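Re: that chain you flagged

S.,

Sorry for the slow reply, it's been a week of failed gels. I finally had a moment to sit down with the sequence you sent. For the record, here it is as I used it:
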Amino acid sequence: MNRILNKIKEIIDSNIKLYLPHVKTSDLENDGAIYYMNGKDGTEFEWYVNNKLPPFMVFYNDEANLGAIKLLLYNDGGIVVYIYDEKGKKLIQEVNTHFDVNETDIFELAVILRNVADDNKIWDADIESINTDIEVDDEKLNEFKENKKYYTAMKNRKIILNLKSYVSKKITEEGWKVGYMERNEPYNEQDSGWSFFAGNEDDEYTSDVKNIELIYVGNVWQQLDSDIFKYIDMASRHKTYSGISRSL
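Prediction finished late last night. Pasting the structure tokens below so you have them in one place:
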């Protein structure tokens, strides 16, 4: 098995012994097998959008089948381990650590996992069952690197979703959809630069701060108007973009 996966196994086993000493091996699915959870988004998506590999997980062996351990390995070698007690119902510990390993080796593991697992439709499998003792050639490495361009828009979306925007109360309180949206220079790291209006506000209305709310872009998208992202994506392709309007 790949040496990084062996290290992951060591970290998970040590955390189970430290934080879940009362949990028997038989209490865990397949006697504590570690599963590579690539079935939701896939290796490339996680790597380029979330800067990590899909989670590595150990599950409780019961009907609910909740997680006991979740380990996240980031592309810079950072590791976060979540430990769950009470059959997976309670998070009891979060451990942050770092791999003493070259980032190139982690990248090569991502390529291997994409090729031997995702490409062969092997999803959420026991890492012991995945043949990772292989060499990856330059062609596979370059293909993985080239595919980064397909995830740029998705990564930008994720970043924007977690930033704040200015939203007219015509939208939040009166129920109007977004009729006009524009992006200006952000004020700070938490500001997306986006402002959303119904399109029927006058200058007097928009100049009154009482008529504007500060809301995460993700909340605007999920709760107020799901159409905004096709315009945000369009804007990202035009460097001279200043605003987009649509009919109400």
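What I noticed first: Confidence is low (pLDDT under 50) at residues 237-248.

Talk soon,
D.
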